[in-house]
Design brief:
Blueprint lengths: L1 H14 L8 E2 L6 E5 L5 E6 L12 H14 L7 H5 L2 H14 L7 E5 L2 H12 L4 E6 L4 H9 L3 E5 L4 H10 L4 E7 L11 H10 L3 E5 L14 H4 L7 E6 L9 E5 L1 H10 L1 H4 L6 H15 L1 H27 L6 E2 L6 E7 L1 H13 L2 E2 L2 E2 L9 E6 L6 H18 L1
Parallel strand pairs: 3-13, 5-6, 5-7, 7-8, 8-9
Antiparallel strand pairs: 1-2, 2-3, 4-10, 9-10, 11-12, 12-15, 14-15
């Protein structure tokens, strides 16, 4: 019965053009990558889908640091952080992260997690106890949504970036603890949360602001310190969750907050307590990544990203002007995430397939990841893309638009 039940559900998924397909990368993460598709054929594709925004994943200095970390600490950690898995590299990384973010979170302390998903689940389930209310943006990442589902707190969702609605919810709350939860950069739209306004509301209503800065860290603000730096914020009310597998180019995650908060998470965050610590070699490599992100090289890579974003947006805006009947929409975004909304699932996947056929990997994103009727190409840029790469994508989109007209 189980197999019949699942086969029925798989057919229903396929009927809605929602089937996901696994591809295999056979080379390093880079703008040009050898990928094996569903047909088992390996091809080199020009990739516009990686979250390696600064192009650090294959940086020689990070490769050397990872090898050095393995030689120093071995391949694994051997246990959870609280048993014997918390190594010197983890401690050094946590101190470096806290120092890096101290201009925005006074007296910050950092706590390592294996992944951003684990960090979000751990933070929200631990802090969102029965005495709390959680106020969550409706377009928050799935990991934040799942974290609120695990929490014992009452969860109140507010319309995307709607400060008037959020203020009304906060004013009506009688909870002992109030937690505002938001992405810093929204992963599917690429737009920024109004963190300055959110923090102002937190201060007025004695709330705390939890920011998942997975897609802002390393990319925005001075030294790549993310959305907190972009908005020039500084407050003990800030709780920052950062991932280290995107712009940092490695893996892992962390929480940076007031020491009382991180010490409580050490006691209560189940995704921290009950899982094996990430390999210390990974933390060792991330230390080198932080050094690169804070350097003049990091500044140059961020500046190149801004140039590439402007080139792409100008080209797509011209395309949309020439083909208004297609109904495509470019979402406003000042981040490397540049979504092009197509609308229906089938049309989106047909366009993604057209691009794939000419050697471009641009994934189609469909519900439930995004709202129904807003299926899109999620174009992501890396600092290691070139102007010629952007031109090639724009030309392919123009040709596809002409064929679909």
């Amino acid at each position: 019965m189980l197999l019949d039940h699942l086969e029925h559900k798989l057919h229903a998924i396929a009927a809605q053009d929602l089937t996901r397909v696994l591809r295999v990368a056979e080379s390093v993460t880079a703008p040009r990558q050898t990928v094996r598709g569903a047909d088992r054929r390996a091809r080199e594709l020009l990739m516009f889908c990686s979250n390696d925004y600064l192009g650090l994943a294959a940086h020689p200095a990070l490769e050397d640091a990872m090898i050095e970390g393995v030689r120093l600490y071995g391949a694994g950690s051997g246990a959870s952080h609280l048993i014997s898995g918390h190594g010197l590299a983890h401690e050094q990384l946590e101190r470096a992260l806290a120092q890096w973010l101290s201009p925005h979170i006074p007296n910050a302390q950092a706590l390592s997690f294996c992944t951003g998903y684990m960090a979000n689940l751990g933070v929200l389930s631990a802090l969102g106890d029965a005495e709390a209310d959680i106020f969550s943006d409706e377009l928050n990442h799935a990991s934040l949504i799942d974290g609120t589902r695990l929490a014992k707190a009452q969860v109140k969702r507010y319309p995307h970036k709607d400060m008037v609605a959020l203020q009304a919810l906060l004013a009506s709350s009688r909870a002992k603890v109030k937690l505002i939860v938001t992405d810093g950069v929204f992963s599917m739209d690429g737009d920024l949360a109004p963190l300055d306004e959110l923090l102002a509301l937190a201060e007025v209503h004695d709330a705390w602001l939890i920011v998942d800065d997975a897609h802002g860290l390393g990319v925005l603000g001075a030294q790549g310190r993310g959305t907190l730096a972009h908005f020039g914020l500084c407050s003990e009310r800030l709780i920052l969750i950062g991932t280290l597998g995107k712009a940092a180019g490695v893996a892992g995650a962390f929480v940076a907050a007031h020491p009382t908060i991180t010490q409580y998470l050490l006691q209560a965050a189940r995704t921290y307590i009950f899982t094996t610590a990430s390999p210390p070699a990974v933390a060792h490599a991330v230390l080198k990544s932080l050094e690169l992100m804070r350097s003049s090289e990091g500044d140059a890579r961020r500046a190149n990203l801004v140039r590439l974003q402007a080139q792409l947006r100008l080209g797509i805006e011209r395309l949309l002007h020439d083909h208004p009947h297609l109904g495509w929409q470019l979402v406003p975004s000042d981040s490397p995430v540049q979504p092009l909304i197509i609308g229906e699932n089938a049309a989106t996947m047909q366009l993604a397939a057209r691009l794939d056929a000419v050697g471009l990997r641009v994934p189609g994103i469909r519900p439930p990841t995004v709202p129904k009727g807003t299926a899109r190409l999620r174009i992501t840029l890396c600092a290691t893309h070139t102007e010629a790469d952007i031109d090639r994508l724009l030309q392919a989109l123009r040709e596809a638009a002409a064929e679909m007209s």
